[in-house]
Design a protein that fits this description.
Layout (H helix, E strand, L loop, with lengths): L14 E3 L2 E3 L2 H16 L2 E11 L5 E10 L4 E6 L5 H13 L4 E4 L5
Parallel strand pairs: 5-6
Antiparallel strand pairs: 1-2, 3-4, 4-5
């Protein structure tokens, strides 16, 4: 069964790489950058698509959680477009959890 791509509402082009699906080239490019940072020793490891549960049975899925060599942890969302739903959920997550979600845009890396 082949991969079927659904047209993205913001015209993002999905990418399949080595059995992993990325909803956009931007998120895939950031993933590739993280792989290089792991090889360089700046990032110990990272997780993709990490769910954070919210009140009312909803959830926010963070694109990447990065565990850095200096002991810090970064929560990163790669965004081409910040929707109003994203902005609201980000505020809720940051109010409930002791984290800050960093937004990475096209020209940030």
């Amino acid at each position: 069964m082949g991969t079927r791509f659904v047209k993205h509402k913001f015209k993002a082009t999905p990418v399949d790489d080595n059995g992993q699906h990325f909803p956009s080239k931007l998120e895939w490019a950031y993933y590739k950058k993280l792989q290089l940072l792991v090889k360089a020793g700046h990032v110990l490891f990272f997780l993709r698509q990490v769910p954070l549960h919210l009140p009312g049975g909803s959830k926010y899925v963070c694109d990447f959680v990065e565990f850095l060599a200096d002991g810090n942890v970064r929560f990163v969302d790669v965004k081409g477009v910040e929707t109003s739903e994203f902005i609201v959920k980000k505020k809720i997550v940051e109010a409930i959890y002791p984290i800050t979600i960093e937004i990475v845009k096209r020209n940030d890396f």
